[in-house]
Specification:
Elements (H helix, E strand, L loop, with lengths): L5 H4 L1 H5 L24 H13 L7 H11 L4 H34 L8 H6 L8 H7 L2 H8 L5 H7 L5 H9 L9 H19 L2 E3 L17 E3 L2 H9 L4 H16 L14 E2 L4 E2 L12 H17 L8 H10 L3 H12 L3 H13 L21 H11 L3 H6 L1 H8 L3 H9 L1 E5 L4 E4 L8 E5 L8 H22 L12 H12 L2 H4 L9 H30 L5 H19 L1 H4 L12 H4 L6 H16 L5 H11 L6 H9 L6 H7 L1
Parallel strand pairs: 5-7
Antiparallel strand pairs: 1-2, 3-4, 6-7
Amino acid sequence: MKHLLWAAIGVAMISMTSCNKGQGDKVPSTMYKGIAFADERMERGVKQAAALWREEDGSAEDFRAFVESNYARTEEERTALFESLSRIMEKLNESADMLTVELLKPTQLTNAGEPTEIDWIMSGYDTRAHLTDDLFANKVAFITILNFPFYSLEEKNTLGRNWSRREWAEARLGDVFTSRVPANIQTRMTEAMAAAENYIADYNICMDRLRTEDGRQLFPDGMKLLSHWNLRDELKVDYNDQEKQEMIYQVMQRIVRQEIPEKVINNPEPVWYPYSNKVESDKTQSTREPDTRYQKILDVFHAMQQVDVYCPTMPTAIIRNFEGDIEMPAAEVDSLFRQLLGSEQVKTVAAEIKHRLGRELRPYDIWYDGFKARSGMDEEALSAETRKRYPDPVTYQKKIAGMLTTLGFQKENAEDIARHIVVEPARGSGHAWPCLGRNEPSRLRTRIAPEGMDYKGYNIAVHEMGHNVEEVISMYKMDYYMLHGIPNTGFTETSAFLFQARDLQLLGYGKQTMDREAVLDQFWGMYEIMGVSLVDMQMWQWLYAHPKATAAELREAVLHIAAEVWNEYYEPVLGEKDCVLLAIYSHMVNSPMYLPNYPIGHIVQFQLEQALADKEGRAWAEAYERWYRLGRLTPQEWMRQAVNGDLSVEPVLQQIR
């Protein structure tokens, strides 16, 4: 998972999503009366700047004088301004991010000591909260808007087909200042996001304290699993012990329904019976966790609502997320997911899984992992090997360059990429923290137990390393700073998936191939995460329809939504009507509407894997690097340049017919 704590991206999530305080045609023409527009670009820039000009910025006469003094009329002036603004943006982003990283270390890393109360307070501090205000006040924002105006998503997808790299970079510069969200509103959003992140990062279940109704302990001493990530991964490897799977499934339902006893969360003392929901020694059923999970979601939603006021052209977080950040309308994403979920291929693959398991399918079989090459391998043996290879973060970091050469990167290039990656021990499940400037490393945060990295941890670390490699290439090897990054987060998830699929290859167990098993595995992964994503998307639609809801009302709504999606797309093949399992993902709490990025990433991965089918070694690495040097084009344009096609589920559906 690429890290999405908004303290790290602050202004970007708001400023790059067309939150204009009105459009040019809504601005009184008296603001720019008498200005002779040199060209269409100047007219666009003047009207967009006027739309954000406030009384405290000056009079209409002051605005006209500002335009006459600051519009770059020659190509030489324009180039000099573009280069200066690009440098300024990089340094501001880089400096603010480096400070954020330092402030968050106590609450995010295990090697920074136990966080104090002041550390928790500072985890919600936004280092960029006042930056937008400052840059509008000193007119840098207006100079940018005037000379490098904003283009809509539709315009980028049409006009952009003929743009040069420089023109694309200029268009991305035009995305930077499209709103004026006050610093106090930005700070509230950051604080809400940080509180949700901290809640999730410490939501552990002590599995050795769980008991069956007849008092048996199923899980080994000391096993502590983070929800939902570690619970899901443990369930995946327990296909030789269905009793364990059923217990994890029961725990997940208790969490989602908020029936879990509060005292068993991250507590190694009490013994818990998940089926009866009793805690040993309690005479009565223990007090359940309050609706904290849903209150955290509400807190984030209410913070988003305060931003909405300043974004009349994209007046909801939903629109800003999909049309602004993901750059794919929500309706288009919804339709794409439902096309696969409702396909006949689901029944085909489900029948294959049922045949292999020799039993009726259960709801948790959405995480069936038997198509992967590792499914027939002894995980304890794999863990013994990974613990030996990677006893600590420092050792993992030292071996990154060698891992990259195994995948086909040339030695010098592999060492250069590895030099920009830092490995750190995470309190949570692990994530990749991107570099926002070329003096900053990409950070791989992962959990490593005292005895070393087990196989599950290694698999996650390789996934995160895929993010890191993309982040380094799309920053350090980019022709224009304003094009650094990828079209949307789904495309960095694609990179993570490409690496994760080759984790055994990195251990010396052969090479990843796009055989039928790999196709089935990718399809089933899409099937699982698309339903989860629909629940997340529909939850946000419900929130906007019920803005005054309580946490209890939100809980009931989420359970209803999860059951409805389940009944339509999952119950026919996995059984159990009204199952709420699709609402277990922690992203719904700490990373609003992040989940759709995963299936988008899987779809892109499948199309890239098809393009890589005849490539290995150096050819594989060269193709990968070419793709991730394309930078932050729109998804549609990126796919056109990468594989000469549209983002579609048709390729994977065709492979299963």
